[in-house]
Amino acid sequence: MKDFEQKIFAAVKEAVRAVYDLTPEDAVLGVEVPRDPKLGDYATGAAMKLARTLHKSPMDIAQPLAEKLQELLPEMESVTVAKPGFINFRIGGGALTALINQVIDAGDRYGDNNSGEGVHILVEWVSANPTGDLHCGHARGAAWGDAICRLLERSGYDVLREFYVNDAGNQIVMLGESLISRYFEHFGKDYPLPEGGYHADDVKQIAVEIAEQDGDKWLTADPKERLEYFMNEGKTRELKKIEKDLELYRVRMESWIHETYFYENNMERINACLQRMDDMGLLYEKDGALWLKSTDYGDDKDRVLRKSDGTLSYLTPDIANHVYKVERGYPIMVNLWGADHHSYVTRMQAALTALGYPKGSLSVDIIQMVRMVENGVEVKMSKRTGNAITLRELCGDVGVDAARWFFVSKDISTQMDFDMKKAATKDNDNPVYYAQYAYSRMCSIQKNKDIPEFHKVDTYDRLTDEKELLLLKMVGEFPALVAKAAKTRKPNTIADYILSLVKLYHSYYKVARVNNPDDPELTNQRLGLVKALQITLRNALDLLGVSAPETM
Fold first, then answer.
1. Domains of the chain
2. Which of 35, 134, 384, 427 has its CA 20 to 30 A from that of 237?
């Protein structure tokens, strides 16, 4: 379905062409919702932006445009001009109520749009080191990234969901050594835990599992062989837990790319990438190290790719990874990184620009920190384990729905307090409960045996109540909102929309009688409204990965 905003936009473009023989840029034709609803449902300031081009006052430009627009948009109740040159649109009730059948027919696909036009986009997120459990910081990014992908998919983008496994480097060596220490401890042997090693309970558990599987054979094994084995076992088992936790959290990954992949075959991909940069004149040697001329491409200083001792910097395999993304057919890339990666963004973007990829190929959203609080007091540790609160524990304490809602309802660019007590409550103070309760109300009305079963009709002309029309207006805005949220990567706007919709619905529910035994026609039409609202709300909740329970 064409939403009203897009339809008005197209009509304004046609009106300007018809009245003034101009084809203006899209920026001139902006359509917005007026701050004061009394002015109308939508407005455009096109006349004011055309004043300089046409050498006329905005009011003089607007009036003939309004007359033409009324002709082009017969579904509008009115098209009026307001100072200093706004054109305001008020949608007729008939156009609004026609939405009901359109929403019902679309069902689960209502809200889908093709604003992405099949553009290939790769979203990389979570990407935690396979050295321990996912914690609450990961939970925020995991929910946000998944919601972004849902929005992009529903908006016609070709999306690849990817987890980049950081399974190379010192952190994996530390994991292996930590496991060996706990393995020896299990058999009553001494093997000091290395400085900077991992103390978490899950490391102890994996060591016990290896001992139960393999016995004591690794106590006397070759140290090099033993370390290699424990490193591989550790990261494999940790990664399986991560996959399981993400599945619990309703986060779907389609691609798992390992950092070690770029070190295989004598670093074939990394060396090819370095050779390409060298051929382009992007590299130089200094103090025995290999440097990238990243300052030529917007970075604050040049970056080391290979250190003087021959080892690679973190940047080098990352560059190779992003080149690989493009080679796989994803010229548009989105990464979600933690706040500690803020300074890393510019150097990665500079490297890609240096390689000839268009600016904007890589977008990075930084995930700010999360503070877990209860009764206004920060909670750093799990009450059960004494360790950092894991994603798994959080889902058990407050539920997947609440965890996801709270994390996606606030923009990741801002730090947030996660109120654990509020998230766990089952009352209207909890926003996700408030939204789900509205949905269950909609379902219960339709299942009520005392109310006749709904059947579609050609017109819903009895829906004239102000709140009914406002609810339908919000339903009509949903596809455009999904498209915008996908483009801006802001799933929190969907959460805001849900709360606005259910607040209005709850207020409507208190004053309107859906079931009117003496007026079956009105009853049926109101049931149609409820069904359209139910579909819209369910689809909106699904975009956030939140369930829509029929009973509560």
1. 4-91 (3.30.1360.70), 97-115+427-543 (1.10.730.10), 170-248 (no CATH)
2. 384
